[in-house]
Amino acid sequence: EAFVRENRPRTERTGSLGCVGWFIVILSGIFTICLFPITVWFCLKIVQEYERAVIFRLGRITDRKAKGPGIFFILPCTDSFVKVDLRTVSFDIPPQEILTKDSVTVSVDGVVYFRVNDPIASVANVSNADFATRLLAQTTLRNVLGTKNLAEVLSDREGIAHSMQSNLDDATDNWGIKVERVEIKDVKLPVQLQRAMAAEAEAAREARAKVIAAEGEMNASRALKEASLVIAESPSALQLRYLQTLNTIAAEKNSTIIFPLPMDVMSHFMRK
């Protein structure tokens, strides 16, 4: 029984108030009824649509569900409450100097979006859920990127963000926090490494350009070879090519006039 009592979740009610506690509560209720016109202003509280109120009675949580939105009632002197904002909160992860798996130092920053999923757990299980989540996001970023090499950090940002979100969500579940999204904003490399990567990329582009040019020359030579075979098989094709060349020369504005001889006249000499 002692083991179960020690290891149960802290958001559960820890037991009854006891005789003294109930006596104080009843006394506070009688006092409230007697001075109702005055105490009504201290008993009625309002929380907004995006807020919830966790009520404590003599230091104990009165219900497993937070109050709100709207108007709720508390007893003066015995009850107190804490407002919890349920809206999504975003914060920037400061730039972290991280050593990657392949021993490269990079500076990485990011942004985290989270909200309170369980108001009672966020109040009872952690002193400052917002501050604790910020610190945990920094350490999680270091731990996740420490298992990646530089190429993965630069190319797989979505996978890193998803891994960080999963780790943060699991760690903050007991705090009543739901991590909705994690994004990697910027990855800064050392200047020497940037120059080396730029030189490597330029060399790779030049190599691809040379390969493409060589492939183009090879294709052109194959096309010329096929054209020469067609012309050799058909003399009329050579005549048409000759006339096309004359048309091209005549279209240009040249000061030199060329009087070509017909191919029929030249073919007699070419055979000799």
Provide the descriptors you would attach to this structure in a database record.
272 residues; alpha+beta; elongated; Tetrahydropterin Synthase, Chain A; disordered N terminus
List the SSEs and their pairings.
Layout: H1 2-7, H2 18-34, H3 36-43, E1 44-47, E2 51-57, E3 60-61, E4 70-73, E5 79-85, E6 89-99, E7 105-116, H4 119-124, H5 129-145, H6 150-155, H7 157-172, E8 177-188, H8 191-233, H9 235-251, H10 263-271
Antiparallel strand pairs: 1-4, 2-3, 2-5, 6-7, 7-8
Helix pairs in contact: 2-3, 5-7, 8-9
Give structural notes.
It is found in: Membrane. Its main location: membrane. This protein is α+β, with helices and mostly antiparallel strands and 272 residues long. It folds into three domains: 84 residues, no CATH class; 101 residues, Band 7 domain (Tetrahydropterin Synthase, Chain A, 2-Layer Sandwich); 78 residues. 53% of the residues lie in helices and 22% in strands. It has ten helices and eight strands. Strands 3-2-5 form a three-stranded antiparallel sheet. Strands 6-7-8 form a three-stranded antiparallel sheet. A hairpin with a 2-residue loop joins strand 2 and strand 3. Helix 2 packs across helix 3 and helix 8 packs across helix 9. The longest helix is centred in the C-terminal third of the chain and has 43 residues. It is elongated, with a radius of gyration of 41 Å.
**Largest sheet geometry:** 3 strands, antiparallel
Gross CATH architecture of the largest domain: 2-Layer Sandwich
Question: What's the domain count?
Answer: 3
Overall mean confidence score, pLDDT: 80
**Span from first to last CA?**
120 Å
Keywords: Membrane, Transmembrane, Transmembrane helix
Organism: Anabas testudineus
Protein name: Band 7 domain-containing protein
Pfam families: Band_7 (PF01145)
